[in-house]
Fold this protein.
Amino acid sequence: IKSRQIAKDLGLSMKIGDVEYQGDGNKAIFYYIADERVDFRQLIKVLADAFHVRIEMKQIGARQEAGRIGGTGPCGRELCCASWMKNFVSVSTNAARYQDISPNPQKLAGMCGKLKCCLNYEVDNYIESGKRLPSREVSLHTLEAEYFFFKMDILAGLVTYSTDKNMAANLETITAERARRIIEMNKRGEKPENLTGTKERKQPERPKDLLADADISRFDKSKGRGNKGNNNGKPRNNQRNGQGNEGRRQGNRNGGRGQNRRNGAPQHSNENVKNNTPRSEQPTKQQ
């Protein structure tokens, strides 16, 4: 930081990116980047007086600076120039054009502000695969319509055509071999029935209605307590049910007493049964 301030005070158009000391600490190497030639003789004298070491200035490029600083690329991994790449190969915009990448400078530029080095990794495979694809300028003629090139998947060998030259309309995706056969047929003056080569053109499937078989009126039914267990949806008569239950309980008590008389067992009231004491030992009202 101090060396950058010294260079700024001297009015030098340069950026010092990194400083490296030798093992014995007697020499320091200052790495800088600059667009033009820089006269740093006065800078070396000032730096030597400030740090009391021998000074060496070494100019590097933007890629080398990014490799020395390090960082994380858009792929989520450490920069290639900072991890394993030692030799830098020039990258041109043709590499992006062969791979059918959008020429957006913000997406093609790396951390150093230059084109990404990874654009050269797969360009050879794309060039070989692109040779097997038909030309983009050739249109396909069928009995249905005329199809124009829309997009392609280079590695998969698929080409998508549209009936409109300027927008996506009635898109059809076919293989590169099928496209070349149609081009040969057009050269002979022949036209296939359709682009895909099928006898009947597939109709687009209509979206299914998930509520087509559902009964929406199910939400209108009342869900009271009296409807529980009633299949007909009619409320029960609570008064009648209460009288019937009371009659059953009375009949059970009477039946129990008759059974006890027949068996010769003594009759006990509910209060005596709960207390588990004989009736004779129960205190009377007078006592």
User: Anything to note?
Assistant: The first strand starts at residue 15 and ends at 21. The radius of gyration is 46 Å. Confidence is low (pLDDT under 50) at residues 227-235, 258-281. Strands lie at 15-21, 27-33, 54-59, 140-141, 146-153, 158-162, 172-175.
